Structure formats: structure tokens, C-alpha cells
Amino acid sequence: MASKHTIATRHAQGIRARFASRFLRSLLRLRRSGNRFGGSQSNDEGIGKRIRTDRIKIAAYAAMARAVGPRRTWSRALLFKLRNRARIHGVSRKRCLVSEKKRVTRNKVVAISSREPSRADTLRKLVPGGDSMDTCVLLEETAHYIKCLATQVTVMQSIADRLLL
Amino acid sequence: MDLITGSGPELDETGLDSLQLGEDIRHLIAAPSENASSFTALLELPANQAVELLHSDSGRKQRPNLTFPSNTALLERAAIFSVFHSSNSADSSPVPSNSSSKNLEKGSAVKCEQLETESYLDSCQPLVSDPTVDNSAPNARPSSKRKEREKKVKAASKKSKSESSQQEEEKLPYVHVRARRGQATDSHSLAERARREKINQRMKLLQELVPGCNKISGTALVLDEIINHVQSLQRHVEFLSMRLAAVNPGMDFNVDSLLAAESGSLIDSNFPNMVMPLMWPEAQVNGNRHQFQQHWQFDSLQQPVWGREEDSHNFITPENSHLSYDSSANSASLHSNQLKMEGRMKLHQ
């Protein structure tokens, strides 16, 4: 298992393999944790399903961000957001200073724009970490983000199909 | 440059006294002369002589034997800039002499332009590696000034070819940016133009990525398409995660087999821009890979698309008519899958 992980995360494999391996492992982890907290929680099916959906979604985005690594602005922003979320949930309490700095810059950027959101602003909201990017960088990050989202979709699709079959 | 071309026809029309115009031009020149971005400021001509030069194309037989009053200053400047221009040192000496003679004939204009173009081509390299310029001032300012002057030279020489009005003989050999004729030569507009070109390049990249954007013209609509695409991809991820959540309780998948299948689909995928194929080193997985190879080559994404059409047939067909994607079948199948999932979710709930 460890050897597979190291092989899969070699750069030559491409982002798809890295994402696939990470996502599968996190799915396994989720399943195991779900089983631990009560295998048959059939009383609150709706809420449980929603929670599970969100967890899977977060796991997917986390896997993608880690597969990309800190090379891209949006992946750094995603990882940061995830770490904050983990921090709020009490997992780890490190890196308070980093979060303070980021929060200041983000607020500054948001406070300035009090007009109707232009297309670039909408795009900034969609792409993680888009607030603190100028237009030129934003377009580049969007291109990479679209590419990674497409891989994410295909991998998840194939996993879901293979699971259901 | 716009300054001169703008004022030229006006002067011709009115045919005013040169002195009177000189004062107007002095006003015009006074403002931009500070940042030395205007043409006449560059020439450092007094207003009268500038006006006379302008008028010379209106038919006066006045052969402007004007000696530039600041000839030495011009020569100095040309000499300074031609220092960098080490490769064409032979040419640089006739260059200032040409500028001093300032004949307005076509031949000289053409020669100047030729010299300028060769010197531009030759000295692109020495320009980049030259330390003297960079040491004196920050890189942006001298390079932008050079750009301005280059543009003025280009524009002026083109202009002097068409009308032998005035002559800009300052031969600045190297400039990175070439502005086209009639464009503003401000340093601000230069930076803006560079920024706009960068943005346009990236927009072209995005247009290729997003399916269906090639036909659309206009930045705003393309951006709309991009936004829609990103939103649809994010919604797709959410649907897929919902689907996986639904599957999750009842699954006992074997991670090894899944990973093998993944690698199989990776290597044989018809996803052209994604992944480089490579050898999977484990022998056991190779066996599995062969199995999945055939499976995925034929089906990779078509089987799920067409196999479950009975669920949400009515959802797919109206949407398929809207699908105008000419890119890979993946995106088309993505969207039809999304709709299938919507149908499936309804079934589940």
C-alpha cells in the first residue's frame, strides 16, 4: 500500500493518478469512520446522507488540492481553507498567524468593491483564492482549475460507475 | 505622435502665420516636454522651426536648411544610445551625421529606416545584457523611453516616406516593443497594452479549454461561458459526491482492484490532454490491466452514458439538443451523466 502510494504520487504520473489514489484512500477512510459511528443509521437518513455528501465532496477537493500541491494559487487557498476548517473543528490549532494575515488582505479587497459584481468578480468567487488575484493571474488560475475540475469529475465518475456496477 | 499628426492637417487648412501658430505649438509642446514624450520635445526644436517643418509639406519650396539648434544635444543623445550598439559601431558614426544633415529626401528616409531595422535586429541581444543602462536607472524607465523613441522613429520614418514633412533622425537601435503607426506612445498606454495582450493570450487559452467558446467572439460572452462551465463542473462534483454517498454504505470495494482499474483507464483513456502513459511496474496489476484495457477501450465513458438511458431518457434528449460541444465526447457525456444523476437522485429519494 505504501509503495503504491509513492508510485502513484510520482510527478510523471500526472495529476489524475495522484488525485485518484488520494481520493480512493480518503473514501476508504470515510467509510471506515462511518462504519465506526454506527453502521446502520437509518433513522436520520436525510441528514446523514447530506453530511456524508459534504464529507465526500470535501474529501474530493482536499485530494485534488493535495495532488496539485502548493504550486498553484488556488490549491494553496483551498488547502488553507481546509486547514482552517480542520482548525475550527478542533483538529489542530497551529498557524494562527498565517490565518490572520490572510484574513486582513481578503477583507481589504472585498471592502473596496461596492458595485455590481462584474464577470471577473463572479469568477473570483468561483475559483478558490480568487480574491487576491489580479485579472491576468485569475485567468491563468481559472484555466488550471478547470482542467483539474475536469479530471476530478472523470475520476469520480469512473469510481462511482465501477462501484455501482 | 498624435500631437503632430493631429495638428498637421489643422495647420494646412488654416494656413496661419507661423508665429501665431508657433505660440500655440509652444503651449502644446510645453506640457509634454517635461516627460519628453512628445515628438517635438524630442527634437528639441523651438516652436517656429517645428511649424516650418510642418508647413514644408504644404508646398512651400523652402528647403529647410535649418541647423538644429540643439544639434549637439541630439548628437550626444544618439551617441549615448549608440554606445550599447556595439556591434554596429561602423554604422553609428554615419547615423549621427545623417541626423545632423537632416535631409528630407526619401532616399535618406529609407536608409534611416533600414539602418534602424538592422540595428534593431542586431542589437536586441546586447541590449538585454547591457549593464550600463540598467545601472543608471530602473529598468522600466529607460526601456520605456526607448520604446517611445523607437515608436516615434518608426512612425516618423513611415510618415516621412509618405510625406516628406519632417525628419526624425534619432537612431535608437533597440527597443523591445514596436508600436504600430498611429498608436499612442505614452508609457502608460504601453504598459496597458502589454497587460491587455497578456490578458488576451490567457483568454485564448481559456477559450480552447472550455468547449464551445471558439465560436463566441467578445470577451464578455466568453467569460460568461467560462463562468457557466466552472459552475457546472462544481455542480457535477457535488452530484457525484451525492451519488458516492448513496453508494457508500453498501460497498465493499477492493482498493487494489479499483486502483488497478484507475491505472488502466488512465493509460488507455481517451482523455487527450491529461496524462502521459507509463508502465505500471507491478506484475499483478498488469494482469488486471489487460482485462480492463479491453473494457475501457470500448466503453470508457460511453457505456455509462448509453447503458442507463432508460432511467432519464426524457431528461437527456432535450438537453442533448442544447449540447453544442465540438470537443471530446467527455464533456457531452458529463452533462448527460449529470442529468442522469438528477433522475437517479429522484429515484433514490
Automatic annotation (TrEMBL), chain A:
What Gene Ontology biological process does one annotation of this record name?
regulation of DNA-templated transcription
| Superkingdom classification of source | Eukaryota
Q: What Gene Ontology terms describe where this protein resides (cellular component)?
A: nucleus
Major location category of this protein: nucleus
Domain IBH1-like N-terminal, chain residue ranges per copy: 17-85
Q: Which UniProt keywords apply?
A: Nucleus, Transcription, Transcription regulation
Compartments it resides in: Nucleus
Report what the protein is called.
IBH1-like N-terminal domain-containing protein
- The record lists the organism as Salix udensis
TrEMBL record, chain B:
Show the segment(s) annotated as Disordered: 87-106, 123-172
Quote one Gene Ontology molecular function term: protein dimerization activity
- Biased composition, class Polar residues, residue ranges: 132-142
Q: What is its main location?
A: nucleus
In which domain of life is the source organism classified?
Eukaryota
Q: Where is the composition biased (Low complexity)?
A: 87-101
- Does this UniProt record's set of keywords contain Transcription? yes
Task: Cite the entry's keywords alphabetically.
Answer: Nucleus, Transcription, Transcription regulation
Query: What GO cellular component entries does it have?
Result: nucleus
UniProt domain BHLH: residue ranges: 183-233
Compartments, record wording: Nucleus
InterPro entries for this protein: bHLH_dom (IPR011598), bHLH_ZIP_TF (IPR024097), HLH_DNA-bd_sf (IPR036638)
Cross-referenced SUPFAM superfamilies, in alphabetical order?
HLH, helix-loop-helix DNA-binding domain
Pfam families recorded for this chain? HLH
Q: What name does the UniProt record give this protein?
A: BHLH domain-containing protein
